[in-house]
Every structure is written in structure tokens, then in C-alpha cells.
Design goal:
Number of helices: 8
Number of strands: 10
Largest sheet: 5 strands, parallel
Helix content: 25-40%
Structural class: alpha/beta
Distance between the termini: 25 Å
Radius of gyration: 18 Å
Order of helices and strands: HEEEHEHEHEEHEEHEHH
Shape: globular
């Protein structure tokens, strides 16, 4: 029986039932401090720092602040400084303030070429599904799972159900990819994709630019997928 793209990627990364290997772990400053502290308390190292990339993005000022110590908001400053210190301690590549590669975590992956088709990608951020636009299995994880991936490069994960959403026709003039996905979520409901890995198909998807596909996949979490 023919397999879907999701089924092929999952099978290639399944270490055992309920455990998958992770090709790329993206890290940012909000969901990682407790994970790094957990490693520290257990005396553990990061299993594959070469498959881990960090960037400061949630707490970065938009006023051109170039170094973390100059961030005015105290909590934001502490979180970014903690990320920088943790990455230095555990040997993880980081693009923080002042780096020309710093940016939104789900934008720099494609920009740097580290997001590739056929990969499994996780991040402590709900919109990690964005990377699915490149033909990857990508989803957000919680802080305890961030620690587990840092320590083992694997993730305890039950295989989700799959959902294929097919758009029969092309988009009319003035209709954007965001209109398309919002209309879909409006039809299915905000819980309509819960428990599913979603694949999008059809002429409307095939005609989209990569930016448009990124938008569609980014919004999947808003439907619970």
C-alpha cells in the first residue's frame, strides 16, 4: 500500500513504538531555561549540539537594541541572557542580539538552510508546524520535552492520526493564503485538527509560493493540529 509523506518520514525516524528520532531541535529563550537547569541538576550534557540551534526571538526589542544587557525590560533581559549563558555552557550554536542571523525561530530555519524536506523538527513553540511547508514533520513541544530532546535527541511521541485537506480550485484574485487557512479553521473549528498531523493538497496549495505554504502550515496549530 502506498504511504503518505508523513508515514514515510515517521517510519524512517521511529526508534521504537512511541519514540522518534529528532533531526533538528530549535531553541529559544522562553521555554528553555528550566530544560537546561534540569540537565544541569542531573549532570547531563546535550546529546547532539550539532543538531540544535538557538536564537533569541520572543523577547527581542524592535528598537535596534544590539546586546542583551541593554534590554530595558528586566524579565526579557534575564531570559535572553540565560539563553546565551546556557548555550555557551552546553556548546549550542546561538544567534542572539547583534548576530545578523538572529530572527524569528521559524524564519531563520529556512533562511539558514537547516530546515530540509524529510526531517523531524521540534521547538518549544506552538507554531513549529511552520516548517511542514518544506515537507518535514514539525511540531511544538513543552519544556519537559525540550529537556528530553536536549538530553537524548529523541522524543516520546505517540503517532498521531493523519488528516489530508484538499483544496479543489485555485485562489481568486485578492484571496491570500491566510484567508484560505482561516476559512478552513472557521469551517473545522479551533479543535477540528486535534490529534492529527495535517497534510495540505490540491491546486490552490500547489500554486502557492513557499511564503504562502509557510503561512498555511504556521496556522495549523490554530486548528489544533
Amino acid at each position: 500500500m502506498a504511504q503518505s509523506l508523513f508515514e514515510k518520514i515517521w517510519a524512517a525516524h521511529e526508534v521504537s513504538d512511541g519514540l522518534i528520532y529528532i533531526d533538528l531541535h530549535l531553541v529559544h529563550e522562553v521555554t528553555s531555561p528550566q530544560a537546561f537547569e534540569g540537565l544541569r541538576l542531573e549532570g547531563r550534557e546535550v546529546r547532539r549540539p550539532d543538531k540544535t540551534i538557538a536564537t533569541a526571538d520572543h523577547n527581542v526589542p524592535t528598537d535596534g537594541t544590539a546586546v542583551s544587557r541593554l534590554i530595558a525590560d528586566e524579565l526579557s533581559r534575564k531570559q535572553v541572557e540565560a539563553l546565551e549563558a546556557n548555550c555557551e555552557e552546553f556548546g549550542i550554536p546561538i544567534y542572539s542580539l547583534g548576530s545578523d542571523r538572529q530572527g524569528i525561530v521559524h524564519v531563520i530555519g529556512p533562511e539558514l538552510g537547516v530546515t530540509q524536506p524529510g526531517m523531524t523538527i521540534v521547538c518549544g513553540d506552538s507554531h513549529t508546524g511552520t516548517h511542514g511547508a518544506f515537507g518535514a514533520i514539525a511540531f511544538g513541544i513543552g519544556t519537559s520535552e525540550v529537556e528530553h530532546v536536549l538530553a537524548t535527541q529523541c522524543l516520546v511521541q505517540k503517532r498521531p492520526k493523519t488528516m489530508r485537506i484538499t483544496y479543489a480550485n485555485e485562489l481568486r484574485e485578492g484571496v491570500t493564503p491566510k484567508d484560505l487557512i482561516l476559512a478552513t479553521i472557521g469551517r473545522l473549528g479551533t479543535g477540528g485538527m486535534v490529534g492529527h498531523a495535517v497534510e495540505y493538497a490540491g491546486p490552490a496549495i500547489e500554486a502557492l509560493s513557499m511564503e504562502g505554504r509557510l503561512t498555511i502550515c504556521n496556522m495549523t496549530i490554530e486548528g489544533g493540529g
